[in-house]
Model the fold of this input.
Amino acid sequence: MGRVTIASTYAEFSAREARGVSPTYERLALAISDDPQIMELLATVPAPKRQPNLLLGVVRLLGGPVHDPGAFHEFTVTNWAAIEQNLLTRITQTNEAGRCAVLLPLLSSLPQPLALLEVGASAGLGLYPDRYTYQYGDHRLGGTGPVLTCDLTGIDPPATTPGIVWRAGLDLNPLDVADDADVAWLEALIWPEHHHRRDRLQKAAAVAAADPPTVIQGDLVDDLLGLARQAPAGATLVVFHTSVLYQVPPARRAAFTALVATLPGHWISVEAPDVLDLGPLPPAPDDTLHNVVALDGVPKAWARGHGQAMSWFA
Done:
């Protein structure tokens, strides 16, 4: 991937992901796309390590400025050695509890009780959909934990939260909600203006800390079957992932999808439309980036990246 391609990635991030969601990142990502020196630096790291969310999160973790493109440039160039080290050792692990709001309509429709297995679980905050409160328009559901607001169209909101009797996660680099350094990384990945998401993270982390999740270090292909076998008999196994597979090489991604299709139970994927081949899709609600919510490989809905909106089309 040459400098032109890297630049286009940042320009697209500005236009399709940050626009209307984070003015700071919209302005900064566009400036980065037109910064030859930063393009040269990014070209020295492997392609998966050049993504905007990772670079911006690392700079914020290191105390760098993101509100002024000129100051960002100076900090990045001056501190490139530390930034590069973090880019090479970290991955984006945006453990956004808000994404549970787009999982809930599917989870609530499956045979209960459920055994949840999240691939790319990060700190495991996505494993507690039964312990959060949901606001779908005028419809409120649940009564504990942080409030997850979602603009849901095309389907009625779920009437109940799911019954979950087992929950476990799989991640190459599990994070611990009791570790201040791990929580600092999760906070650095939250976009600057999103104070509500920062508050939501703290409340979701408190839920997880009260009943720590089982998140094991492992590979989504090599270790999936062994973990799935630990799910209790009599519960519906649900393997799910949200915005994870884009970080997985295509061959490994194909091996995972072939393996998960052989497991009993169900598979929920929430990924960008170019990540999985799900067949023809209707037009997305608008030009901003949407993920496709699919059940057992069948597309059901469009969803915004942080769970703030879901448009059902199935």
Summary: The chain has a mean pLDDT of 95. The radius of gyration is 19 Å.
